[in-house]
Specification:
This protein is an alpha+beta fold. Helices cover 49% and strands 15% of the residues. The strands form 3 sheets. The chain has a 4-stranded antiparallel β-sheet, with helices on one face. The chain has a 3-stranded antiparallel β-sheet with strand order 7-8-9, covered by helices on one side. Residues 126-135 have low confidence and may be disordered.
């Protein structure tokens, strides 16, 4: 009986110790469960925030595209003429009218909103037309038309006159060729410059702009590809080593 009582006491002690361990394990499991619930709640909040962030990023992208489109649309009536030497006390409107006569698309004052030089004065390190390393690089002359269709027709005619020079419009100085382009925003101008540079080294034959959008074409007969962002350019044109 004594041995039996001792054995029973040992069993009770072991059961008490086991119960304490089980209680501790349950406590830890409860803590882990609470932590897991809290973690799941935080993940749920983060997922909701991620969805919100993605939505906001898409909205920002759309707004930026709208802003770029609106900025370019505001220049829709303008033409940029490059290569006209700057002279003291020049009359930009008169120069624009003389050019219109020379290209065979005569205009008068009532057709123009304004004509002016744009951008800072630039110094050319090397003028390829004269070899003069100290000559001034003339700023572009911007001409804004009152009617869009007239600007389009003027630009269409002007682009056929590929050998028109300053001498032809009686502007003294370095004999430069004149180049006619539609006016682009700073961002689109940078994109156009990058597109031309990449196309030259990537086998693309054509790169041009139309209504403020940059287009590229691999070769004759291939479809034109619209390039609206730098990401579009990187996706369609291989990088240059």
């Amino acid at each position: 009986m004594r041995l039996l009582r001792e054995a029973v006491c040992d069993i009770k002690a072991q059961m008490t110790s086991l119960a304490e361990h089980i209680t501790k394990c349950n406590t830890r499991l409860d803590e882990y469960e609470n932590k897991l619930i809290a973690t799941e709640e935080r993940l749920h909040v983060l997922e909701e925030k991620s969805v919100t962030i993605n939505s906001l990023q898409n909205t920002i992208t759309i707004l930026r595209e709208q802003q770029r489109s609106q900025a370019q649309a505001s220049l829709r009536n303008e033409v940029e003429i490059l290569g006209i030497n700057e002279i003291t006390n020049e009359n930009p409107v008169h120069i624009a009218l003389v050019i219109s006569q020379k290209i065979g698309f005569p205009l008068n004052d009532a057709d123009l909103d304004f004509a002016k030089r744009v951008g800072p004065l630039r110094r050319s390190k090397d003028d390829p037309s004269t070899g003069d390393s100290t000559g001034d690089q003339p700023r572009p002359l911007v001409v804004r038309f009152l009617r869009r269709h007239q600007r389009d027709e003027f630009l269409k005619v002007a682009k056929t006159k590929r050998k028109l020079t300053c001498s032809d419009i009686e502007i003294p100085g370095t004999p430069r060729f004149l180049y006619f382009n539609e006016r682009l925003t700073h961002e689109n101008r940078q994109l156009f410059r990058s597109a031309r540079h990449r196309c030259k080294g990537s086998g693309f034959k054509y790169c041009w702009t139309k209504t403020g959008t940059v287009y590229i074409r691999k070769q004759d007969g291939k479809p034109a590809i619209a390039i609206k962002t730098m990401e579009d350019l990187l996706r369609h044109v291989n990088p240059i080593d």
